[in-house]
Amino acid sequence: MVTKTTLLDIGGTFIKRSDGQMFPIDSNGSSEAIAQAFETAIGPIDGLSGIGIAIPGPFDYRQGIFLMEHKFASVYGKRFRELVHIPEKVQLVFHHDVNAAMLGSVKMLSLQRHNAALVTLGTGLGFAYALKGQVQYAPSGSPARNLWNLPMEEGGILEDYVSARGICRAYATMSGNKDETPRSIAEKAYGGEKTARKVYESVGAYLGQALGKAIRELDIDTVLIGGQIAQSFSLMRDAMLHQLEGIRLVSAPFGAVFEGLSSLLKTK
User: Fold this and answer.
1) Cα 74 vs. chain centroid, distance in angstroms?
2) CA–CA distance, 194 with 188 (Å, rounded to integer)
3) Which option is the CATH number for 110-252: 2.60.40.10, 3.30.420.40, 3.40.190.10, 3.40.50.300?
4) N or C: which end of the chain has fewer CB within 10 A?
5) Beta-carbon neighbour count of residue 65 at 10 Å?
6) CA distances (Å), origin 252, targets 56, 74, 210
7) At CA 171, angle to CA 167 and CA 174, rounded to 5?
């Protein structure tokens, strides 16, 4: 059984470690710079028996090979173990970040008897689900179903509306102010600004509408909301519930992605 471990959640600009530390990384940087960022986040290898890594796709989760072209392009086709110089004796486990969070949420919230879905809101829109506690996977190891690329009647795809860029674009369209961030818009909404509240309500409505079809098809009874923008979940909740009658809607537990990774290392 693995004992001393390091757990990492890889993003495009930061690497989060399970001890709460965050390390900068430029996913558009050189191969050497990316390798150095990983090495810094992992820390000393001596005495380390396992490393769990949550990373978005496309990625070869069995072999640990980078397959992304829009991010980490300079390390495309490279194996993580060789890139970061990880000895063979150290166990490496790779998992899609949203699937890892879904796996951890099942355990932390005791969802083994439920059909549950997880939506993550941030730079993009993530979706994963578990049926009777079993996370569902595509053959690639990514989530079995996507929402981000659903076509919209208004044009574009769902992620154009339900994401950080969607929030900023909607606020700029309604207010003429192009200098705000999702966080500052949320602060305005909590402060009572009607335009800001309308933006977040529209995001909740779009997401609720898109979720409705998937929930009916998969017989989902619980929806979890996670990701950076989920900190403003209360601004979207009512608009979402209007589209999701009878569904339990809750925040994803803090640290779910690391709980998922930890459980994978323990089973190896």
Assistant:
1) 22
2) 9
3) 3.30.420.40
4) N
5) 19
6) 18, 33, 19
7) 140
Phi first, then psi: what are they for 63, rounded to 5°? Answer: -95, -10
Q: 208 phi and psi, to 5 degrees?
A: -60, -40
Q: Read off the pLDDT of residues 122-136 as tens digits, 9 standing for 90 and up.
A: 888 999 999 999 999
Distance separating alpha carbons of residues 24 and 18, to the nearest angstrom: 15
Q: Where are the domains positioned within the chain?
A: 5-95, 110-252
Residue 231 has pLDDT above 90, yes or no: no
- 5-95 against 110-252: fold identical: yes
Nearest to 205 by CA among 169, 235, 176: 235
- CATH placement of domain 5-95: 3.30.420.40
85 exposed, middle or buried (CB, 10 Å; 0-12, 13-18, 19+)?
Answer: exposed
When the pLDDT of each residue in the chain is averaged and rounded to a whole number, the result is 94
Q: Which of 268, 259, 230, 263 is nearest to 108 (CA)?
A: 259
Q: Give residue-wise pLDDT tens across range 40-94.
A: 999 999 989 999 999 999 999 999 999 999 889 999 999 999 999 999 999 999 9
Contact between residue 256 and residue 105 where contact means Cβ atoms under 8 Å apart: yes
Q: Assess contact for 206 and 169: CB atoms under 8 A.
A: no
